[in-house]
Amino acid sequence: MMADNPTNKRTIPSVSLTTARTGASTQADAMGMRSMQQRAYARRGEQYLLINSPPASGKSRALMFVALDKLANQGLRQALIVVPERSIGGSFADEPLTASGFWADWTVKPQWNLCNAPGIDEVKVAKSKVKAVAEFLAGTDQVLVCTHATFRFAVEELGVEAFDDRLIAIDEFHHVSANPDNRLGSQLSQFIARDKVHIVAMTGSYFRGDAEPVLVPQDEARFQTVTYTYYEQLNGYEYLKSLDIGYFFYTGRYLDAIMKVLNPSLKTIVHIPSVNSRESTKDKHKEVDEIMDALGTWKGVDPATGFHMIALPEGRIVKVADLVDDGDPAKRSRVLTALRDPAQRSNRDHVDIIIALGMAKEGFDWIWCEHALTVGYRSSLTEIIQIIGRATRDAPGKEKSRFTNLIAEPDAAEALVVAAINDTLKAIAASLLMEQVLAPRFEFTPKNAGAKEGFDYGPVGYVEGKTNVGFSKESGQFHFEINGLVTPESPEATRICREDLNEVITAFVQDKSALERGLFDRENTLPEELTQLRMGKIVRDRYPDLSDTDQEAIRQHAVAALNLTQQAKQLASGNAEAGDDLKTNTALLDGVRKIAMDVRDLDIDLIDRINPFDAAYAVLSKAMDEKTLKQVAATIAAKRVNIPYEEARELAMRAVRFKQERGRVPEITSPDAWEKRLAEGVAALARYRAERQASNV
After folding, report:
1. Of 428, 425, 462, 432, which Cα lies nearest the Cα of 447?
2. Is pLDDT above 70 for 581?
3. pLDDT band at 205 (very low <50, low <70, confident <90, very high)
């Protein structure tokens, strides 16, 4: 059964993006640079540079351009390229850049590409290469490529001072963490403190770390950021037109449901669950065998590639690469070599399905992948972003791409219902984040702040006194005026509102309490409890040194970006279901503009009164049967307690602001639910303080 079969009501595309295919992101200038690479090269003089750009946008080549300039024109002696695993080292192999118009070629002498070292044990290989790093630093050759592990061991043995006057380029930068236990993160802080190296950091994730930040704030402030959005990347492709992201609920064993979403006519990467997860049968090799058996009849193994040959029921042979089987190193090496064969890069028929567990994620470049199918939950949103990136490469004839998360439906009758609900919430959080990542970026200003150059405000243009919405086709940004919007005061808060809103939104959608209450306890939860209290606490905890005004500005900008994206998505989806002839590549824009037309004055208070999880609930109600949904909601509601102290304190602070704005205190008998809640918070805080005072007597 195909994954998008309309009769299968439990397959829900929660995110859908259709692009204009402008070709802009794949077109090169006279120096051979694509759009993102031009943007990075323009900032090549920065000592600390962060390239925040999607998979397949050309980060590796952007680094080559920047590094060559630093070596030739900025006085740096050498460049060390650091990648998380050896398989990614191939992305930094020799490139004849002069053939495309650049002034130098990228060359790595074979002995200095340490990722090509033989061996299976990554740690042993990494340790054995520390001597090679020392020899490189003592010589005159200019470029070395090694793994994160090799670099960590080299810094430990040689000291940070041994790397003075060099460029250190860290690929997949989200592996770094400010946690003291993260050695690479600690070493990075030492390099920044010594301030005698240049650092280029590259990541395909739009947020840096799931629970721990990559850098402490004072170090992060040293970096200049080059941001290239998913919207710019995908909208500028030549071939890929649409991307769907969704989840499919199943009951029982995933192996009995997988063929409902695994379509053998699509080039697919299947990631089976970790053996420690609830979804796993605890026998990963048997799971691979069952998947291949479900596909068809096994016809043997190709001796040249190691791919399994499977005959489908209609007779067609599909080639399956098994990256789960790690029992025979020679066999796995043969499969990996076949997958990386540069001569087969343009051959769409080289392989059909790849089954993996821990591999084929970040840095895995298979341009023909049309479907990334992941079984079970992934605790890391960064990992999910990386997996989705496997399916977002542009390739001739590849018009559609999708990511599907096959997940077990929560059963409130089971003892593990809490774990199942938690996993469901993780899947929804990932979906919400991807909606935000894929949307064009917002630029918010207070009402009547004036038109922005380069933005189209529709047939009438910018009109003073009305809600104005502008869109820039060139940058893929919205300009949105909001009445009552607080403007950030400090440069840091301005930067956060411009660059890091997705970081704030990531923390919010990962907030288990917010998700539970916003999805499953809707009748007892006011939207303001989510948008003002929960989001407010997240902003204060994340940016404790900013002023109250700056914290409120960031909160408002984050809530506006999240809620406007969600509401626009609902409007566009509703119009499509009603049969309206919307241009799909402008559906989100049309939805946002419809919001502007439906309200005379779009106010931040109005935005605060929208539950950010409304759209997600609408999707969930279609994906999950009504009985299960009600059982889960009852389980969540039963956990609800009286107002906790922290929430009561926040409500009381909001009540003070209410009094300042309206000249009176909130009344507990008010018909307005939010005013009543503020009054309840004040009363609850008074009770807490009275109890504490009594206990101290």
Report:
1. 462
2. no
3. low
